Amino acid sequence: MRASIEEIQSRLRELHVDGWLLHVFRDTNPVAVSTLALPTGQTRSRRAYYWIPAEGEPRKLHHAIEPHTLAHLPGPSRTYLSYTSLGEELANLVNGAKKVAMEYSPDCLIPTVSWVDAGTIERIRSFGVEVVSSAELIQYFEACLTDEQITSHFTAADVCKRVANEAFEEVGRQLREAKIPREAQIQHYIMHRFAQEGLTTDHPPIVAVDANASDPHYDPQEDSDSAITPGCVLLIDLWVKGKGAEDIFADQTWMGYIGSNPPEKVVQVWELLRDARRAGFDLVQRRIDSGQPVFGWEVDDEVRAPIIAAGYGEYFFHRTGHSITTVDHGSGANIDNLETRELRPLIPRTLFSIEPGIYLPEFGMRSEYNVLIDANGKPVFAGGTDQEDLILVQV
């Protein structure tokens, strides 16, 4: 298991939950797979359940033909065969519990933790049990980083920042040599530099000019990408991590302009994004300094408010940020009160992005940095990525 039974039970008691019921079926619940460290390559075609009570010994329930599913875990096991015996055994498994955590989110407000099917939730409720979301347990045990993981993130963040700046320099070098760089070419340049640095990523970076930058998930293709020319707004969004299974991603977006004198509107939009991004960080810092919790939805609102007030609200159409772990979009609290309502607090040793965007018909902009709540509960900029001014590419 990723965490000890004792650690999980301590957290359950803090949350005033009687136990955590982890449901396993064909790997449809990645939280159970990860938390229980289920072996890879194993057949899991029948339902299995692992019950971790707040007090006492954990227990296992598995199908008669797949006793191996939970065999590596501590605690006594029971077997079921028919669907009727499954119901009886499940009732016995959670007997005495009044509040049970499962991978469920009321109204699916946090879809990244909602993995257990409605029928299973209904069956557990039929025993007179209240089913609550395991979202806070998931964040605590899946998204809190070790010291080594935090170090791996800062290493990746330093490379990310350096390679991004090298990419802007490469654009300028080519233009000064009367060449015409293109989006896909600079994307390939960044991937080559990541390989040289011994880092990896799950998808190539976004390199986008002008209107292309108004597509938050733009992916330049060699047969349809755009040239990078003087007078362009240039967005570079890149994310990377070490090659170790437990290494942590860094995810940054940098904004530039090709030339020395960006138009007034470009500067205005950039400064609005920069200040909105800082407002989110400042809220986190104020709350933590005062000993008060701060929630993902609140930070989204704080960042979004000045953009709405400036008349650009309709052009900021995604959440403000996301959890970052061994995957770029992790299982901790997101900075979101738009696409979902993130009700979890931001807690020590978690990492997330703050990345407001304004996507106009003529050009798009996004400013992104990563924020770590360190082991002492203090927010810090990860990798020193607090971009102050537009990068002006000299041509």
What's a quick, concise take on this entry?
The chain is α/β, with parallel strands linked by helices. The protein has nine helices and 15 strands. The protein folds into two domains: 5-142, 3-Layer(aba) Sandwich (Creatine Amidinohydrolase, Chain A, domain 1); 144-393, Creatine Amidinohydrolase (Alpha-Beta Complex), CATH 3.90.230.
Q: What level of helicity do the residues show?
A: 25-40%
Output the helix-strand order: HEHEEEHEHEHHHEEEHHEEEEEE
Shape verdict: elongated
Radius of gyration: 24 Å
The CATH class of the largest domain, by name, is Alpha Beta
Q: Termini distance? A: 55 Å
* Number of E-state strands: 15
Within the CATH hierarchy, at the fold level, what is the topology of the largest domain? Creatine Amidinohydrolase
Largest beta-sheet details: 6 strands, mixed
Q: Which consecutive residue ranges, at least 5 long each, have pLDDT under 50?
A: none
How many helical stretches? Answer: 9
CATH architecture of the largest domain: Alpha-Beta Complex
Strand coverage percent: 15-25%
Strand order of the largest sheet: 4-3-2-1-5-6
- Give the averaged pLDDT, no decimals: 96
Explain what this protein looks like in three dimensions.
- With 395 residues, this protein is of the alpha/beta class.
- The chain folds into two domains: 5-142, Creatinase/prolidase N-terminal domain (Creatine Amidinohydrolase, Chain A, domain 1), CATH 3.40.350; 144-393, Alpha-Beta Complex (Creatine Amidinohydrolase).
- The chain has helices at 5-14, 30-35, 83-93, 118-125, 135-143, 147-176, 183-196, 264-289, 296-309; strands at 19-24, 48-53, 59-63, 77-80, 99-102, 130-133, 206-209, 233-240, 250-258, 350-354, 357-359, 364-366, 369-373, 379-382, 391-393.
- The model has no long low-confidence stretch (mean pLDDT 96).
